[in-house]
Design brief:
Length: 339
């Protein structure tokens, strides 16, 4: 019984991994002839048609919420739809395999609609349809009449079979290995090439590559704290940061050692006062070292995420701040969240 359950789960996961994602992007109105709620309704009609026509074991139609999750807020999603010059590129932004969108215009006094469907990986136009009507109800009828045939054209252009063949698995492994080599040879310098090659990877392959290559900050934080000298930053490749931390530690440590060895400060109070500045230098070096290592890790992981076209746009960092208080500079920390 246990083996049967495991087999069923394996088959379910395999089917999910091979399921292609279809994104129905928000319908646009170039002439502002239709209000936003009616545009949403037309978009929902396209999405409903795709769900009804396409086999569920092969295709997954993305919800509005999942598309917004990739593009950001509703406002940012609408902005991206308006500014995108290529519908296939917009499909890549939401990690879809196929993308469709309707556009509303005017011809004389009539409303017009044009719906296009693209294969995201190849950028090729699979099909389109147009129509015109006196009102929005006619546009709805055009979608009902023509959208089913449009989505049926996808059935002959699928990138994967229901169950993967060995040849396709080999191709996927080779493509993943190619992207891994590019990452190993330098993420920053190969970012554009990685973005291009990762378009041919599945969402699961990209997620696994991200998990395998993401940087963990813990080790670098420890090295920048103990023994210090910017060792964590050096290993990360942040040479300038490492040099700054090394100088600070050497200056602070040697000064503190000199203060402790030299015995002419007139007692413990004088010694404590003399040790304040080098102690502050050492403590500041440790704090700044932690911040630098943490921020570098965060920036590296964000760059990796962008290079793999995962589009997880949330990032955060901690920054040292100098904040005036009553005319006197004060040191503090700022937490920055970007999405």
């Amino acid at each position: 019984m246990k083996n049967l359950i495991l087999l069923l789960l394996t088959l379910a996961l395999a089917a999910y991994a091979q399921q292609e994602r279809v994104a129905i992007i928000q319908t646009l109105d170039n002439k502002d002839s239709i209000d936003f709620q009616n545009l949403l309704y037309l978009t929902d009609k396209l999405r409903e048609t795709a769900v009804n026509v396409l086999p569920k074991e092969r295709y997954g139609v993305m919800t509005t919420e999942s598309i917004i999750a990739f593009l950001g807020s509703q406002e940012r999603a609408v902005k991206a739809c308006n500014e995108s010059s290529c519908l296939a590129e917009l499909g890549r932004m939401v990690s879809a395999d196929y993308v469709a969108q309707g556009r509303i215009g005017r011809f004389g006094k009539d409303l017009t609609i044009k719906v296009e469907l693209y294969n995201v990986k190849t950028g090729n136009l699979i099909g389109s349809f147009t129509g015109d009507s006196k009102n929005i109800y006619g546009l709805r009828d055009i979608i009902d009449g023509k959208a089913p045939d449009l989505f049926k054209q996808m059935l002959s252009t699928s990138n994967v079979a229901v169950m993967p063949q060995q040849g396709q698995q080999d191709v996927n492994m080779e493509q993943r290995a190619k992207v891994q080599r590019l990452i190993d040879n330098g993420l920053a310098k190969n970012k554009d090439e990685i973005q291009k090659e990762s378009l041919y990877l599945s969402y699961i392959d990209k997620s696994n590559l991200y998990a395998d290559n993401r940087m963990n900050a813990v080790g670098y934080l420890v090295l920048n704290f103990v023994p210090g000298l910017g060792l964590g930053s050096y290993i990360q490749g942040e040479i300038i940061s490492g040099v700054i931390l090394s100088i600070a530690d050497v200056v602070g440590g040697s000064t503190l050692a000199y203060v402790c060895i030299k015995d002419d400060y007139g007692g413990d109070i004088g010694l404590l006062k003399a040790a304040v500045i080098p102690s502050i230098i050492l403590a500041s070096s440790r704090i700044v070292g932690l911040i630098l290592a943490y921020n570098y890790t965060n920036k590296y992981n964000k760059l990796l995420d962008e290079a793999l076209n995962n589009n997880n746009n949330i990032s955060y960092s901690i920054e040292p701040l100098i904040i005036p208080r009553n005319g006197v500079p004060a040191v503090g920390l700022g937490f920055s969240l970007r999405y």
